[in-house]
Sequence to fold (185 residues):
Amino acid sequence: MKKLIVVLLLLPAICLGSFAGDCQDISLSFGLINNFGLSDRPFFSLEEGISFSYGFNLGLTKRLELMAGGSSTLVPDILLDNVFYGELALSLLGNRSTASKVAGSGINMLLGVGGFYGFNRLSSYKSAGAYLSITPLVVGSPVTGRRERVLRTAMGYDFLNNRFVLMFSAICLDYYVRGSWRDYY
Fold:
């Protein structure tokens, strides 16, 4: 199951990278995230635990990017709750990429809208819905080859269970595999 998830996340990035245009940079992302309301446990319960996030970002235009990925619990039980998401994000403070060796805005902010699907590995609990997210601090750009997204917060609604959800990530790191300075020199 773990290998299948990794293949399903990396396959679109590899396929899209071969057809990518000038603004279409690709990054792999990793980070820690807390999900509240996306499991069958009480909202804001300490049992919700800490999850790690993984995925990829695909630059669509100079200001717009597509994010796809997931998060899986680390604590209290590894891979117990899994959430997969897709998000369309807009850079608010300037171009995230210039499609050249000139870096885009080094400090930015992202506003996104997306959807999620989650499940519990040991029970029949499932969740699905939509969310809005804001990332108040983004440091780095595709040209630099690395980017940090800090204090990302998302709030949404789980349509299957009729409850609000909250996702919070202290930091997420993006490593660019296409569209960085290495491609221009």
Summary: The helical segments are 2-18. Strands lie at 26-36, 50-59, 64-75, 81-91, 107-120, 126-141, 146-158, 163-178. Residues 85 and 135 are 16 Å apart (CA to CA). The chain has one helix and eight strands.
